[in-house]
Write a structure and sequence with these properties.
Blueprint lengths: L1 H19 L3 E3 L2 H25 L1 H6 L4 H16 L3 E3 L2 H27 L1
Antiparallel strand pairs: 1-2
Helix pairs in contact: 1-2, 1-5, 2-4, 4-5
Length: 116
């Protein structure tokens, strides 16, 4: 049940990012659900491989290269899905930052609900 709620809230977060920032476009809530699932899968499968492969660059940049990896995952999802568009790398970087910040708020809200 918690996974389903998190998935729905992540789709809403993606719609909020598209509303706040015009470099990210989501055509419908259904496309937001699919995009949230694809972003989650990419972050679960591809991101760890990229983190390990780029570890020297990440160390040299004091971890800032992880923002680039997050942007690439966000941009890759938009390339895979027809109803989710990101206009370029910088839009993906800003969109992924916003999406991550909203995700942190969602996680803290779910944690607070779970504790009470």
């Amino acid at each position: 049940m918690r996974l389903l709620i998190k998935w729905l809230l992540s789709a809403l977060a993606l719609l909020l990012v598209a509303y706040i920032y015009n470099g990210v476009e989501v055509d419908s809530f259904t496309n937001a659900l699919i995009a949230a699932a694809v972003i989650g899968l990419l972050n679960m499968i591809v991101r760890p491989v990229l983190v390990v492969l780029t570890l020297p660059v990440t160390i040299v940049t004091l971890g800032l290269f992880l923002f680039v990896i997050n942007a690439l995952m966000f941009w890759s999802a938009s390339g895979l899905l027809p109803g989710f568009h990101v206009t370029g790398f910088w839009a993906a970087l800003i969109g992924s930052l916003l999406y991550s910040l909203i995700g942190v708020v969602i996680e803290s809200a779910l944690g607070a609900l779970r504790r009470s």
